[in-house]
Write a structure and sequence with these properties.
- The complex is a heterodimer of chains A (99) and B (555).
- With 99 residues, chain A is an alpha+beta fold.
- Chain A has one domain.
- Chain A has a five-stranded antiparallel β-sheet, with helices on both faces.
- In chain A, strand 4 and strand 5 form a beta hairpin.
- The longest helix of chain A has 11 residues.
- The N and C termini of chain A lie far apart (34 Å).
- Chain B folds into four domains: 104 residues, Sulfite Reductase Hemoprotein, domain 2, CATH 3.90.480; 162 residues, Sulfite Reductase Hemoprotein, domain 1, CATH 3.30.413; 83 residues, 2-Layer Sandwich (Alpha-Beta Plaits); 144 residues, 2-Layer Sandwich (Sulfite Reductase Hemoprotein, domain 1), CATH 3.30.413.
- Chain B has 18 helices and 21 strands.
- In chain B, strands 16, 17, 18, 19, 20 and 21 form a six-stranded mixed β-sheet that branches.
- Chain B is globular.
- The chains are: A alpha+beta (99), B alpha+beta (555).
- At the A-B interface, strand 4 and helix 2 of A face helix 13 of B.
Chain lengths: 99, 555
């Protein structure tokens, strides 16, 4: 891993559903656990370019920082934590989809 | 029971225009889905149709002109929420409704369902003249000069798809009131209009350059009295002046408030008045025939004369004390239905509740409903004799919370639970404050208090004009909440002052509790409101309650 580089995954919203998706080695997934992780700046560049290859599926794609200390990627910023879950006022969104 | 459309009805031209726009958007979506349009190309097209992409899903913002709905429209909103969304809708501080979970492929069908009841999502986004808002008590308020929705409707027709004003430097919001008591927050809009009478003639006081957001400003009076016939020529003059001179170089300085601030009111007034002279030559006065047609759409309903026979139970009386306002007829009241039951999300109404509201409106309020900028629903024309039946129906639907204007009647934007722009969550803060003050008797003891919460600097939750304002920001990777004090969105307009350093998410509710305890300790008696106590004593006792002795250093 490059020194000082924070590991990243690529995320977007699904074009039709609008829900949060993550880029994996096999295309887009609704679960961050399966996301492909970039561990160097070069990997990150390649990842976002690859993620941008299938624009018909997605609305926008960007890289976010992840924490790998548990072995699976977890978002660092609270906004991204919320995106993995859904809103806090109703049991809607991802938290409900995963049940 | 009567079921008449008490508002402007679409002409064949309007109807055809709307259907064409939907067909066009349907084909644009199809082209996005088949890859002919990139996301970059598609985004401005969807925004022109009110479709945003938020954190977890798309969001469709639907215009409710001047916040007025009839029962048929409310029922259709219920139907849309059930069929295409998750069974609820969110009423906003701009008197609109937002659906939080539509699928892109369903949006044309949603827009068709809206068009079936004369509604749309046009000009609910982008740098254009947005949905015109008005006093939510319009047509019913005891203190109004005339129904302000007549003016709002004239402006709606003029501004809809206006060819010159679809690409302004920035978005543009107009609000109209017709009372000295400002319930429409007109001093915080790009243009605020107050109908007033001068020497027997009806006209407007015209206010420009108000706004909230990152640079809050109180609007300034650019014209003390504008005759009614000159309305559109004067608006045209303001908009043209702004369109030419507004700053397009910096998005954060592009609103008209910055132009007023940088140019100075006098200079800008001179330019507007000069342009107005030109407009007067080019534009005819308001067509009296057309005006009469619009006025006819807002004629007062046929109020019933009937005796009030049933006495109110204590619960009904408590509800009536807090949630009703004087009507222009002494035997009627205006009922405000709170969407802020303890634990609920401000502004959210389920499909089942929307249907109940539609039924009540049709039966007891001359088929009229209003959405207030405070995210409540108003039944504008309820006969006192019908109040018990209205109360019972509301109570059975969980809509009889007697907290209007009290501490738990909180405005909250969607915040980071939904909004892609937000920097912190708003809704859970509102829910937790409401829970902390759940006891209605305690709320009544605290008295009138407006808490307004925004989840980012854009201030959709109007925090600058909250008696207590809360602004959610990010600080060092966590949510942080700044408190402002003494804001006021009424005719006594004030921008709240920042109290000091922010509070963490788990500290904000205790901080608000301390503030309210300090108010209770310092007020002269029960008749002195939070805002009055703050104005009398200044911020010092409130800051002491928030920060103890440390506030001087910490601030």
């Amino acid at each position: 891993m490059t020194k000082g580089f924070k590991p990243k995954v690529a995320t977007a919203n699904h074009l039709i559903e609008g829900d949060v998706i993550y880029f994996t080695s096999e295309g887009w997934s609704r679960r961050i656990e399966t996301a492909a992780v970039a561990r160097t700046a070069e990997d990150a560049e390649a990842l976002i370019e690859q993620a941008g290859q299938c624009p018909q599926e997605t609305a926008g794609a960007s890289l976010i920082d992840v924490d790998l200390s548990t072995g699976i990627p977890r978002p660092v910023h609270f906004r991204e934590v919320f995106r993995t879950r859904g809103p806090s006022n109703y049991f809607h969104g991802k938290q409900a989809d995963h049940v | 029971m009567e079921s008449k459309l008490i508002m402007y009805e679409y002409t064949d031209f309007d109807e055809a225009f709307l259907r064409d726009r939907i067909t066009e958007f349907r084909s644009q979506i199809a082209r996005r889905l088949d890859g002919s349009l990139t996301e970059e190309e598609f985004k401005p097209l969807r925004l022109m149709n009110g479709l945003y992409l938020q954190l977890h899903a798309y969001m469709l913002r639907v215009a409710i002109p001047y916040g007025t709905l009839n029962s048929r429209q409310m029922r259709q909103l219920a139907e849309i929420a059930e069929r295409f969304d998750k069974g609820y809708g969110h009423f906003t501080t701009r008197q609109n409704i937002q659906f939080n979970w539509p699928k892109l492929s369903d949006v044309p069908d949603i827009l068709t369902a809206l068009a079936d009841v004369g509604m749309h999502a046009i000009q609910t986004s982008g740098n254009c003249i947005r949905n015109v808002t008005a006093d939510h008590f319009a047509g019913a308020a005891a203190d109004e000069v005339e129904d302000p929705r007549i003016t709002a409707e004239i402006i709606r027709q003029w501004s809809t798809d206006h060819p010159e004003f679809t690409y302004l430097p920035r978005k543009f919001k107009v609000a109209v009131t017709a009372s000295d008591t400002d319930r429409a927050v007109i001093r915080f809009h790009d243009i605020g209009l107050r109908l007033r009478r001068q020497d027997g003639e009806i006209g407007y006081e015209v206010v420009i350059g108000g706004g909230l957001g990152r640079t809050p400003m109180i609007g300034k009076v650019v014209r003390e009295f504008l005759p009614k016939r000159d309305l559109l020529a004067y608006l045209e003059a303001i908009l043209r002046t702004y369109n030419l001179s507004g700053r397009r170089d910096n998005k954060f300085k592009a609103r008209i408030k910055i132009l007023v601030h940088e140019t100075g009111l006098e200079d800008l007034r001179t330019r507007i008045e000069a342009n107005f002279v030109q407009q007067k030559r080019l534009l005819p006065d308001l067509d009296p025939v057309k005006l009469a047609q619009i006025e006819a759409g807002f004629r007062p309903p046929a109020f019933a004369d009937k005796p009030v026979t049933r006495t109110l139970s204590p619960a009904m009386r408590a509800f009536a004390d807090i949630n009703t306002a004087p009507h222009k007829r002494a035997d009627h009241v205006i009922v405000t239905v709170s969407t802020k039951a303890v634990g609920s999300t401000p502004g959210d109404v389920t499909s089942a509740q929307m249907r109940v509201l539609a039924d009540i409106a049709l039966r007891y309020s001359h088929d009229e409903l209003r959405i207030s900028h405070e995210q409540n629903v108003v039944l504008p024309h309820v006969h006192r004799a019908d109040l018990p039946a209205v109360y019972d129906a509301l109570r059975d639907a969980g809509l009889a919370t007697a907290n209007v204007g009290l501490v738990s009647d909180i405005i909250a934007c969607p915040g980071m639970d939904y909004c892609a722009l937000a920097t912190a969550r708003s809704i859970p803060v509102a829910q937790d404050i409401a829970r902390a003050f759940a006891d209605i008797d305690a709320q009544r003891d605290i008295g009138p208090l407006k808490i307004k919460i925004s989840g980012c600097i854009n201030a959709c939750g109007h925090h600058h004009v909250g008696h207590i304002g809360i602004l959610g920001l990010e600080k060092s990777g966590v949510e942080s909440y700044q408190i402002t004090l003494g804001g006021d969105g009424t005719e006594a307009a004030e921008i709240g002052s920042r109290a000091g350093p922010g509070f963490a998410h788990d500290e904000i509710v205790p901080a608000i509790e301390r503030l309210i305890v300090a108010y209770l300790d310092h007020r002269l008696d029960r008749s002195e409101t939070f805002l009055e106590t703050y104005r009398r004593l200044g911020a010092a006792p409130m800051k002491a309650a928030l920060y103890g002795g440390a506030h001087d250093k910490a601030a």
